[in-house]
What does this fold into?
Amino acid sequence: MASSSAADLRRARKTSQPALTALLVRFFEWFGDLGFFCLQLVRTVFVPPYEAREFAHQLDELGSKSLPLVALAGAATGVVLSLETRDSLVSFGAKSLLPALLVVSIIKESGPIITGLIVSGRVAAGIGAELGAMKVTEQIDAMEASAVDSYKYLAATRILACVLMLPLLTLAADFCGIFFGWVTNTLTEPISLQLFIENGFKHVTFNDFLPPTFKTAVFGLIIGLISCFQGMRAQGGTEGVERAATSSVVLSSLFIILADVLLVRLIQEFLP
Amino acid sequence: MMTTTETKKAAPPIQVKTLRKSFGRHKVLNGIDLAVAHGETLSVLGQSGTGKSVLLKIVIGLQQPDSGSVRIYGQEVTGLARPQLNEIRKKIGFLFQNSALYDSLTVEQNVAFPLERHGDLSDAERKKRVRELLSTVGMEKDLDKLPGQISGGMQKRVGLARALALSPDILLFDEPTAGLDPITASEIDALILKMQKEGNMTSIVVTHDLPSARAISDRLALMRDGQILIEGSFKDLQASKDEFVVQFLSRSS
It folds into this structure.
């Protein structure tokens, strides 16, 4: 009995080894391909003609159209933070700290990360599916055959739009979070907006506000880069499009969370 | 003494030498040699999955071969840097198997797309040129329709108009009549013939539609196992005693 299970274990190890090797090869291949993709982008992005019209279109498509969703998510965060922290602060007799706690937690972390993840869900899926569909139906090949650089026209415009729009969308999320945090607070215990803002921002410096807001440009870079990369390497019909869309969301969300950890630590180190 | 430009002009428009391409262990192209003369139309025939489309994509630099050479007017295409490759691509029109129209753009915008990025036409001139091209293929009434709103045959016509937008010297056709009914297919054949005669263009047509290939080609090449099995006129193919050639012609006729 024991020898049979040992044999099973050996057999399982033998079969799992090539699978593990293949997985590792795919992992390193993916990073290699991503590096090559970045190189191609850097090579083309600074060479004219600049696709200004497509860039403006993407600013609208990825930025403006994400605004309602981001504003709603920011507002919900403000409401929840206000409701959750109020009881705790009351029990510690520190009710007056609520505005400051709300403002600091929204502008330093909740606003940026919620914006990053919400935009990642909406935009990365959209880009992954759109470019994936274009790839499997040879539209990207057709573009290249017309001597149009698909890296520049499709990828660079979308990535730059994401980089530029994420900090602006974060500002919108921060604003809605703080405003609806005040609304929630004032429904329980009336307080003027002016006083709420004054108390909230009393101890906030530019170092509390600017680095966390601008770190979302890195989130934008991650969303744009990963989703364009996944979309433009899609293959295999509708299943390939589905894979490109799903992996764009999953990978960009994962990398945003990892980047957030790193960026928070870097900000603490260099901009205390 | 000839200048470099004259040498390039004198060189055949398309010359392919010992081209090899594999996907994994599967050898798709295994030493292809082809040359297409100025104004000539060569049809490459063969079974599905024999690498005919791959051949066309290598010719225009969309895929890289494992080895071998592709020259367009004497200039090597394989491994060429993007700016030089794009200059060559402007001389080539490509009609894709499924037309590959940009599905978020209208018929008019699809044809205008290459013109907006190359050449120096004003907006009015570009609009006029797009209408001329669409009128040539009989699609001038469907300017504002999206590709999803028109039939497969109409999409081929728009694809052809887009391929002609930059007034290319060379046309590459990937299965131009695949998936079309016989009447629409013969209409597309007639259009291709008309374009070739008017523009004196050099073409490679990849197809497994023998009647279409006969109608539009000066020369035929039959592919098997990644190589050119036989090359010549339709009569040359008919005269062949090779079992595969006989089987292919009898099945396709």
Summary: The first strand of chain B starts at residue 14 and ends at 23.
